[in-house]
User: Fold these one by one.
Assistant:
Number 1:
Amino acid sequence: MDEDRRFQNLRLLEALLFASAEPLTESQLSAYFPEGTDVPDLLRSLQGYYANRGIMLEQTNQAWAFRTAPDMAPYLRREKTTQKKLSKAAVDTLAIIAYHQPVTRAEIEEIRGVSLSKGTLDTLLEAEWIRPRGRRRSPGRPLTWGTTDAFLDHFGLESLSLLPGLEELKAAGLLDTRPAITALGERGLLGPGEESRASENEEDKLDEGEIGTLLESEFAQGESDDSGESRHSVKPWEDQDSEDSD
């Protein structure tokens, strides 16, 4: 085969592989060339030409295709940070957990005065601002919730004792405009240095190894809380705007 014919065959092979959405076998490629053309030799030549380039010719399960060079993957990856605004219900729930932890779902609903959407806790869990604290030693053994170190870090707090007090909330006008925050004032806020309203004897603590299994049970399989109602899985990215109308 003269050099000009070989060069044209290499160009054709390159075009076929580039245009195909799926890898092509040698028999499929051979259908485009004159009988007797050494397609395997052309493939090896083309593979050598693309060695150490941004794209490579690779063989997988007897089929050939162009692929991005593996070492280029980190340079092609693009990360985008998106900000998601918390719903009013999520903000209220987070405030209640922060000031009353450890607190059960039923207690959150009692303070807010409305039922808590199942997706609200999922959202706060996804943000890593809350975590299971243990189970209350009461009928039904309801799960209790508390804040995390990530919550303190995000809001610039060294400890829960630095949360705004009753007078600060009044000065900011929050106790007049937010029902859930007003309830905090009525029920009392955490005092200086006080990290929890429940004594060690009022709940069973969770080991770190138990948390993953517990969350799977809590959100994937559903669980009856102290109100006796069943809770089922709700993904944190589902629409929460219509969860309540308070």
Note: The longest strand covers residues 130-136.
Number 2:
Amino acid sequence: MESPRQAESGSFNTNFFCLKLANNILLKKAAEDGSNTVISPFSFHLILSMIAAGSAGRTLEQLFRCLGSTSLEEMNSSASRMIDLALPVIDGRNGSAIGDPDLSFANGAWVAEGLKLKPYFQEILAGLYHAVAKEVDFANKAEQVVAEVNAWAETATRGLIKNLLTTEALEALTDNTALILANALYFKGTWAQLFDTSRTKTRVFHLSDGHKVHVPFMTSLGFQRYLYRSFAEFKILKLPYKSHHPAREFAMYFFLPDARDGLKDLLEMFKANPEYLNIRFDLVEEKIPDFWIPRFRFEFELEASEAMIQMGLDLPFDRMKAELTGMVYGSTGRRLFVKKVFHKCLIEVNEEGTEAAASTAVIIEMQQMQSMYPIASFVANHPFMFMIREDISGVVFFVGSVLNPLLNN
């Protein structure tokens, strides 16, 4: 048996910080409570890029290190190419969208009354992220603002992400809140080879703790060939999505440990080597007579600030050291800092393909002169891993794990 090796991937990849962040959360949840998990490194990368565009000094340098950039120009160029990957390709002759999967990506900004965006930051929000900043009253209309952000995320994700901002977010909004920055990603892909629903059967799924559940499993005709490879202690299966655009090749990868309780070890390996999610695995086409994949649908949410701080991205969250100085006028000299990072994903995998969505919202607050508040946290994971990646660029859109396909059905 062999291990994956580094290979040519594409002109740019999802950066290691966001992949490692996702993997750390998967691993923590697998060890903690056995929950299914799905996270969007793509969404995290672009929300951090947006924060970096309004940062300076050591905070900007730390964000550059996490994002794998050395300058604003390089970071903005990478963000622009990533955003282009998540937008529909338009046929210049008739103006209609062409190719599968169906993708969309949107950004939003809500600014406190009395504050004004600085010109460069406003230009970046509007020009690169296509976000129009709206003035809102965080102090007196917090419930209305939360409802508005939630409605925006729900609309942008075709109804999949509901209640991105929860009670915890509502409690975090005060008269010191300066900004909410958010993004929303939608993905719907059809398998290049559809599964036959008449062949779907209920079979046993073995949980990590030794228990069993009965779930619907999808299969195909025995003569079909799949991209597959067996490595040391795990196997990889690739299922491509239907596509009519030569510059885009989306696929879903399944990482199956050989041992029934082997997911934790597999996640540990990816934690130590996050670049594995960016490489080509040199898969080969093979017939797989015994081929079964469970159907599943679940959603996952977390407040990610503590996870980011633990990984070394601490300065944006430090009310005494954060240098988010390029965002707004009108904060009367008070330092801005990131207070909360809310992330929510949903994924459904069935015989036709995959539908998934993600949304991330960042609450940015103005420093108070005296009191210091602790940073709250909430993080998440399951028996196989998966990711959704655009293979030509190497950008990872979703990473997740499934411990029990019946959860959150």
Note: Residues 39-189+296-368 form a domain with the Antithrombin; Chain I, domain 2 fold (CATH 3.30.497.10).
Number 3:
Amino acid sequence: MRGLATQLLDRARAAGPDAVAPIVQAGHPALRARALAYDGHLSDAELAELVALMHRTMRAAPGVGLAAPQIGLPLAIAVVEDPGVDDADVAAARERVPLPFRVLVNPSYAPVGDERVAFYEGCLSVEGYVAVVTRPRRVRLTCLDERGAAVDEVLTGWPARIVQHETDHLQGTLYLDRAETRSLAASDDLGAHWASEPVPHEAARTLGFALPPSAG
């Protein structure tokens, strides 16, 4: 695993300080493998370099999260960051508050309470499509940060969704595995229309899928 990681870093170094990594797409075996728990495979400097590469790649895509398997490295590390949205209705309905940049090492999550919410999601490794995924509204996240400090906290709303999406990647799960299949839409003008709705009521009526009772 260290050899695979260092090859990735060597290619990025050769491409220059602003290099980003190619994002693999659905069908790549790294996206369907259970990621290996990180256990000091890299030096501190190499880990920092990998985190910086993932951060640049996520921002350039652009996205709000990136797991190491998405750059072909089946290691249990993910990065997340969300500046939020300008649309106040969307922000309120989705509880989408800014999420500062952070690193998740060996993360896991567990639902807190029974409330579930459904919204459109996309994925940098499934280009061209969006679909509705029903997920727990609140989750307890446990992981380490990039310095090895323990993290144990409860997240709500969109930050909880981002953490679930990225942690799922580390288990070999794509968001499509959890999606309402009738909601699947190409991310063209119509797909963008469905995904822009604060809560996808119109999409549910038109495309014929159910939302959880707790949907706003």
Note: Residues 44-60 form the longest helix (17 residues).
Number 4:
Amino acid sequence: MAAALGPGEAAAAAHALSLPAEAYGNDPNVELMWAMRAYQHAEVYFNLISSVDPKFLKLTKADEQIYGDFRKTFGDLKIDVLDPEELKSEPAKEKWRPFCMRFEGVVEDFNYGTLLRLDCSKGYTEENTIFATRIQFFAIEIARNREGCNNAVYNSAKEPARA
């Protein structure tokens, strides 16, 4: 999608994405740019966990803090296959909000929208993807990497293609 933008359009898009949300109403062009950025992030991340053993990945400078706080706050959250209600319901939001806010100023763009896979053994498809904040993405994906949940993606990418 972004490849279709010329240099001037790409620069304008980058500038638009740096402005505060209050500068926009529900501008469909901005929503499209955000969606493109989220998709590109998802594509890069999936390629990364497909080519590098996930247990060795470091996603942020604060991985230790994120993982520790995540498991302290959400110790029983099932992360291999997420239930969207555990992220989006009102009770879940009440629990996630203070967790997320702890990373303001610690993780750059902690509250940006990001795509998150529901079932970590599968790729990004419309049925397997939800919209989450970047800190939710980091918390869940750091846990998935450390706890071996993303090994299925890495191992299947290493298998030779079958004819």
Note: The beta strands are 113-117, 129-133.
